[in-house]
Amino acid sequence: MTRQLTMIFTFLIASLGVLISSETVNADDTKKVITENSAQVKGTQATNGQVKLIAGQERAWQASQAQWLSLDAFWQYWADSRGGITWGSSRDYPPYEQVKEQDTLLIQLDNGTCMMEFWHSRWRRANDVRRWDDAFNHYSACPYVFD
Question: Residue 55 carries which DSSP code?
Fold first, then answer.
């Protein structure tokens, strides 16, 4: 029994050492990740909506496809998985009385676009509702939609 416990303990310590050494990453390659489910800082494991700089371009992890997409492609995939962008892409918001909860709109401004979602009786940035990565709120026209 003592020998078995010693072997198990040795195995656990060795496994912990491997785990700790594999979690060592370059600080430039990690970001604070805010997901739909948590606001925890993650290491190298990608979560849906996590944004990472790859070859100088921001990419978002799309978990169901298990690949990094441009932020625009991530928005499109998300909208398509819900039946498409309800109000399409426009410079103008649709008439308030015609909009329903969880409708989507790709709003166009002079400096880009931003995915919007109608939530709790008003238009919000989709990221403010879905809680992907904070980087979405700084992407394209998203910082300016409420100006």
Answer: T
Cα angle 50-94-88, degrees, rounded to a multiple of 5:
50
Residue 48 · residue 62 · CB < 8 Å: yes
- The 3-state DSSP class for residue 119 equals strand
C-beta of residue 51 within 8 angstroms of C-beta of residue 60: yes
Q: How far apart are CA 99 and CA 121, in angstroms?
A: 9
Segment 112-127 shows an average pLDDT of 98
Buried (b) or exposed (e) across 93-108, using 16+ Cβ within 10 A?
eeeeeebeeebbbbbe
pLDDT 10s digits, 9-67: 444 444 444 333 333 333 333 333 333 332 233 457 899 999 999 999 999 999 999 99
DSSP 19-48: HHHHT---GGG------SS------S---T
Could you tell me the pTM of the whole model?
0.69
* Distance, first Cα to last Cα, the chain: 70
